[in-house]
Amino acid sequence: MRLDLSPRARRSAVLSALSPVIAFAGAVLVGGIAVALLGVAPGAAFTTYFVIPLSEVWSLQEVALKAAPLALVATGLAFCFRASLWNIGAEGQFVVGGLAGGWIGVATQGAEGFTAWILPTMLAAGTLAGLAYAMLPALLKVRLGVSEILTSLMLVYVAELLLDYMARGPLRDPAGFNFPQSVPFDPAARLPYLMEGDTLHAGVLIALAAVIVATLVLARTLFGFEVRVVGAAPRAARFAGFSDARLTLAVFAISGAAAGLAGICEVAGKIGQLQPTISPGYGFTAIIVAFLGRLSPPGILVAAGVIALTTIGGESAQIDLKLPLDLTRAFQGLLLAFVLGADVLARYRVRLVPGGPRRTA
Predict the structure, then answer these.
(1) Residues 206, 72: contact at Cβ < 8 Å?
(2) Beta partners for 353?
(3) Which of these, 181, 190, 162, 166, lies nearest to 92 by C-alpha position?
């Protein structure tokens, strides 16, 4: 006997709508068992993970600050993934964007007179740097047929090492007691706070605006239709006259620009200076967020909030309950696996059929 997947004649709308809820419940169940095996009451753990971060203003702001870069990067990645192209290097594009925009913040430190141009220039530089960095794997794929998965991933390490070198060398603060960091940015080079005395800055609004624009582009433009068609039926797209090369360059440009913008928003917002590390892995986590959100910008926004919530809750659980932080990462990966599994079960029926493993000629 072997398991066989057969497409459902008609996909249930109710099952499709409930599959994320079922997946989340399954992940919580497995996570609860793991927590219990570690000697912690599951109820106390999940209260710390999911309830406490929503009960105080400061923790809500932290959730929003972590969700914003995840939503922005994942929204850009959704264009690539919908077109069946695999940009795995958003982390590198994030880092390059933060470095390019941050360099302007360092170069203009102490500037006098009219300084309103500094922040827009930093945002533009970060966006363009992320776009240009994403073009490297895109051009290699279009011109030479090189796998974009490998090239985009390997370029992450180049970007991280470049940032480390710049923060420890040319851009290091000479009065910083030899710490590997740049001078703090001037107020003119920082994203403004939404409310005085809070930590929430304008980068959250930029992420929300990007989600809205991406939703409209994917749903109501010819380019969005082209992305959907190429991803769902590439052969039909070629018959329709859509160019694979042009689309590859376009979606990589969008995803790289979004990652670069997220990078400079993080540097000009929460961090306020260049450091050897400016990302806790937003570019890689955003891949999980994109698929949790089913490659839909509104869904991505919700998924980013869930992942940010578990991250903040995981940090609290590490302090209060002595649970390892790696448990949070495991839960996030488990959640993705359950969501993908639920989607498969919503589209296919699982049957036991006689015979051994299926063989292909």
Answers:
(1) yes
(2) 2
(3) 162
